[in-house]
Amino acid sequence: MNNIIAVGPRELDFENTNGFFSGSITLYGSGENGNVSYCRSRGRRINHNVFSEDQAKFVSDEIARKIAEDPDVRFMSYDPNQAFDCGEACVSRTLCLNSRALMEKLNHKVSFRQWAAPLCKVHHSDLLPGSECTYKKLAGRYPGHDAFIVQADFACGGEGTLFMDAGNAGEAESALLPTERYLVSPYVWNNVPVNLHAIIYPEEILLFPPSIQIMRRNGNKLLYQGGDFPAAGQADPRAMGKFREAMLAVCEKLREEGYRGVTGVDGMLAGGEAYVLEMNNRFQGSTSLLNLALRDRGFPSMQELNYEAFTRERASISLEDFSVPYSCYTYLADEKGNCRAGHIRHFEADPDVAAIQGDGLSYDQPAAPLASLERVTFRTNIAGVTSDGRVVLHPSIPEMDPVWVNRITEQGDRLYLKIALVNQGIWLSKEAGEYLSRHGGVREGVYNAVDLTVGDMTINAAVRVKFAGLSPFSLELAEGRLTLCCCGRPVAPAEVQPADTLLDIPLSGRSKVRDICLLATDRVRVQHATNCHYKRCGLGCKFCEVENHEFSFSREDIFRAIDHYLESDYAFRHFLVGGRSGSPGQEPGEILDVVEYIRSRGDWPVYVMCVPPRNLETLRKLKAAGATELAMNMEVWDEALARRWMPGKSAISRERYLEALEFASGLWGKTGAVRSAFIVGLEPEESLLEGVERVCRAGAAPILSVFRPIPGTECGAIVPPENRRLLSIYEKAVLICRRYGLAPGPACVPCQNNTLSMPGGT
Predict the structure, then answer these.
(1) DSSP letters of 358-415?
(2) pTM
(3) Which residues 6+ apart lie within 8 Å of 231 measured at CB?
(4) Cα 315 to chain center, whole Å?
(5) Which of 210, 142, 143, 150 has the alpha carbon at shortest distance from 180?
(6) What's residue 44's pLDDT?
(7) pLDDT tens-place string over residues 709-729
(8) Distance from the Cα of residue 152 to its chain's centroid
(9) Rg (CA), the chain
(10) Which helix H or strand E contains 630, and what residues bound it?
(11) Under 8 Å between Cβ of 633 and 679
(12) How far apart, in Å, are the Cα atoms of 278 and each of 117, 122, 250, 266?
């Protein structure tokens, strides 16, 4: 049994298999270490999900050659179904092969769903001829739905799955054959595609952790481009439990019918339910991630366990407490076979990248439409599940939308630039980093970022958050100047403010200036409280990186820290007081003292951030003391999600916020001096915009702060929104604000650095 050849689409599908294979026959591969690769032999990239006689002949010929070299050779196929097409000599030498009749029944969507329907909840679909699959006819058949999925009975990787809506109806319809029959179902907008692997033994079913399937729309097709195991923990646990029960029922029936070995089921979570979609009676795209996790535990690989299922009654391992921390994404050529804009990045420099697997070909060699370029494996989640049940991919993982690249690099669209840069962050080239070190270093921006000045905008771009190193944006040194680039293309000259030299000046005890003040853009931020009251009570906001101190600082320390900035050469326009929520009984007095002190030192504008005080007359005192602006930040409008993300602060009701905002607007005016911030990305768009409207109605301006997952926080694994969704939310918020004579805040242009807002409110 020492001459076993793996047969499948990718060489990487058989990595980490503990020497089980002596070689491999694959479509993509290195052509080295016993691998024979179709792409290498032909010198071109392919879309392996599209059937090709030449590919099939290549595999069949190589199998025949291996048999001629060693009649005792054995094969294990990624997809055992394909062994039946390679002749009896191959079939008789293929390990782990179930009966052809059973495999055929499972291999087609229609027959599988008919077989599985008595066992579990199968997603409803109708079998219709292509002539009936026009957008107009489907809209009439499924009232209330505006998009549809049209699938071929047999296809892999989503290649036979068409997405049809009003925008692409004509093109999608032209891809269908009038007499061919297709499975048709309404598209469920808020759904989570999931997958489960199992290995069926004679006396046991080994069920592995679930993964989320990353399905991406490419033209009219919905294609599988990756899997994510850690992100599955963000899905509805009850619905996921139902999917697991459905998988067990299907596998138990398969076991009774004599099926052995590896299998997988694709499903969909939607509306609290779990639906089974199709069976994969083979290894799958995410199997290689399971092999990594099995390797980490010293367990046999999936291929070895598959062999076990045909030679043992029960598994040699237990999956109790077994988890998979890996995810992967496959990069594809575009519909014309070109490498997409922004794809080539320095993956090897990112600490979360575990492996980069290509086919050994260069980008100047021809590629088929939607051909696979390479697959990148990550040590963490790359996808997430939103509160309204959608899967969102981290914006720095996929190729940047060519439309956005063009708007930023060719048209100079400042709004597109700001949204993408705030959301995706930036990495600094080695030369730019050395230049900055020689010229005063880099000033610390809020939220693990740097503040870049580009034209008349200051943009807060993350540099120390997850996947910032994979951002399409970089800061380069060109002709002695710092230049902001997008996908390697120059965008504009950029400036970075030098490091703040006052931060490490000691105060009393263990405190330093950095514990109280932060100089950012045109303001000095002053923390009035040593610790966050809510975090001290174990009820801190889960998205906040603020750490409580083991020491305290006095009121005099605050004043001394402020003095350091007033007496320095740094140029700034105003102060911001706030940042940690103090004790409800003490905070109003603490803030009032700081405001009075600042105003005693000069006619400085003072911006106060605080929670609504118990006594609204406190706001009148702040106004009288000289506070020129006020923010009371709700952060999350949806009450259930507010309790989830802000267990302490959410005890302050929306009504109390609105009452305080309306009272404050009566004092400061309804021109935007009074504001309330919302975090864009922690709640559905509908509830966020409802909150925006209610704040505007109270006379205050909303601040739209883009969610940024800070490492080490409980929200560190949450994925931020897509750029296009941020653009849509911003445009809708602007329209709401205009109805009330307002604009998304803040009005101070430098202070807009980390918000969805633009100079002039447009």
Answers:
(1) E-S--TTS-B-TT-EEEEEEESS-SEEE-TTS-EEE-TTSSPPPHHHHHHHHTS--HH
(2) 0.93
(3) 211, 212, 327, 381, 382, 383, 384, 385, 391, 717, 719
(4) 35
(5) 150
(6) 86
(7) 988 899 999 999 999 999 999
(8) 29
(9) 29
(10) strand 629-631
(11) no
(12) 11, 9, 11, 5
Helices and strands, counts by H and E, the chain: 21, 33
Give 556's strand partners: none
Give the SS3 label for residue 90: helix
Q: Which two tokens stand for residue 548?
A: 């409580």
For the chain, helix, strand, coil in percent to 5 are 35, 25, 45
pLDDT bucket at 550, cuts 50 / 70 / 90: confident
Q: For residue 285, what pLDDT band results from cuts at 50, 70 and 90?
A: very high
Q: Is residue 530 classed as helix, strand or coil in its secondary structure? A: coil
Q: What are the residues whose beta carbons fall under 8 Å from the beta carbon of 131, sequence distance 6 or more?
A: 178, 179
Burial of 329: CB neighbours in 10 Å, binned 0-12, 13-18, 19+: buried
Are 35 and 305 contacting, i.e. CB atoms less than 8 angstroms apart? no
Q: Which of 233, 323, 282, 246 shows the shortest CA–CA distance to 714?
A: 233
What is the residue type of 92? S
Are 21 and 4 a contacting pair, CB within 8 Å? yes
Do residues 170 and 216 make contact, with C-beta atoms less than 8 angstroms apart?
no
Tokens of 91: 């079939």
> What tokens were used for 270?
């939607």
Model confidence over 505-548: pLDDT tens digits? 999 988 999 999 999 999 999 998 888 888 888 899 999 988 77
Q: State both tokens at 218.
A: 């490419």
Q: At 524, phi and psi to the nearest 5?
A: -110, 120
Phi, psi of 438 (to 5 degrees): -75, -15
Whether the CA torsion 680, 682, 686, 691 is positive or negative: it is negative
Please name the amino acid found at residue 262. Answer: V
Residue 163: left if φ>0, alpha if ψ -120 to 50, beta else—which one?
beta
Q: Count the Cβ atoms, other than its own, within 10 Å of residue 255.
A: 17
Q: Residues 276, 269: contact at Cβ < 8 Å?
A: no
Residue appearing with tokens 């009005």: 747
* Whole-number Å distance between alpha carbons of 329 and 382: 8
Q: Is residue 182 within 8 Å of residue 128, measured between CB atoms?
A: yes
- Round to whole Å and give the CA distance between 43 and 36: 13
User: How long a stretch of residues is the chain?
Assistant: 762
